[in-house]
Amino acid sequence: MKTKEFIALLNENGNKELVFDYNKGTLVGANYHLTEVKNIIVDSVDCGAGTDFWKETIVQLWESPSELDKTKYMSVSKALQILNRVNEIKPMDLEAELKIEYGNANFHAAQLFIDEYEILEDRLLIKLAVEKTDCKAKEECGVPVEINAEKEACCSPGGGCC
What we know:
- This protein is α/β, with parallel strands linked by helices.
- It has one domain (3-155).
- Helices cover 22% and strands 38% of the residues.
């Protein structure tokens, strides 16, 4: 999800609680804070000598140990106020992919992408997922490319779905 899409989603749901699901049904505690927003530039070279360049917005969540008994989540409007304030100080690239950085005692710190979201009566539920590492130079490195046989059969001449 791009930064501008995330901000638009927040703008549409300001009266709700902002809740993050970081591990298929496991929620970030209601005691979380938005502790940092990072504008990241990635300028890389892969193992096949291919270069790449992109930008990311990383929003860091942290659970306050002094608020373990907190049950009410941060409001969407509060999160939006924080992001708007950050944008005034260090403008975000609205076209950049947005990731959520999070970790706790039971879950390794990771940069998670927004897999999907649900708009509920009183909550905006953001479902996060881990992005797996991958070889970007499979052909150059001789890494076999997995082909989905079902998809290939469907899209082959006479497959009936193209």
